[in-house]
Amino acid sequence: MTGSRIRISPWLTILLGQIGLTVAFFGLWEIAVRAQWLPVYLYGQPSGVLSKFITLLMDGSLIRSTLITGAESVIGFVIGCLFGSLCGLGLWLTPRLALMLRPFIVAINGLPKIALAPLIIVWFGIDIESKIAIAAIITFIVSLMTAYSGAQEVDQDLIRLMRSLGASQRQTFVKIVAPATMPWIISGLRLNVGFALIGAVVGEYIAAKQGLGYLVYYAGTMYDLNAVWVGLFALMLLALVLDYGVTLLERRLSY
């Protein structure tokens, strides 16, 4: 009698591997702290992080902070990516304007956007609007550059073919340029997940009374490393959720 082999799907293998790596990481971290190889006051401790997570979760501050930072990031992400992509594609339709604006775009793109944060805080105040504005400005530039670069990389033979068939510039844009640029735009969206979070968190660092950035900053000033790790892990989880949203959008657009 031949024994049957149990087949494990590749997806399950990857999931088990990810769980194993996570458990090993936190296990080694806990062992290193308990064995005094790592000072707890500098690195925190997984058991302490878990205890602090439960405390912040039960008093509602963690959920509230996550929702606030999530709202700032998502709204800024949507505004910046939408208008940035539209402007990037619009530059393809107006090549002369694109040449005129090119040095300004390059200069703004090279400028560390975080340097604008103090100005934006002054203009918009310390409430949620300033964090949304910072996230939107950072993501706008990235989306504009990726969309315009993608439009410039469209196969010129296809464009010449459309023109030889009598297609207008608008028809060429709708039928050829815009669809061919979508992979570039999606790539820009993935990059902007992190940039949107950076904008929101930096704004909270500079001036805020709530949010994950404020939670991490305040906990750091109090040398509460466990609370700092809770805030950082919450930001990682938020980044994963936003990236999954981009994945769903990509699947939707591919149909």
Detail the topology: elements first, then pairings.
Layout: H1 10-34, H2 40-43, H3 46-58, H4 61-93, H5 95-110, H6 117-124, H7 128-152, H8 156-164, H9 169-206, H10 212-221, H11 225-254
Q: What's the total helix number?
A: 11
Task: Specify Rg, calculated over alpha carbons.
Answer: 23 Å
Multimeric state: single chain
**Main sheet properties:** none
Which structural class matches the secondary elements? mainly alpha
Order of helices and strands: HHHHHHHHHHH
Features:
255 residues, mainly alpha, 11 helices, 0% strand, globular
Describe the structure.
This protein has 255 residues and is mainly alpha-helical. The chain contains eleven helices and no strands. It has helices at residues 10-34, 40-43, 46-58, 61-93, 95-110, 117-124, 128-152, 156-164, 169-206, 212-221, 225-254. Helix 3 packs across helix 11 (225-254), helix 4 runs parallel beside helix 7 (128-152) and helix 9 runs antiparallel to helix 11. The longest helix has 38 residues, at 169-206.
Summary of the model, kept short:
The chain has 255 residues and is mainly alpha-helical.
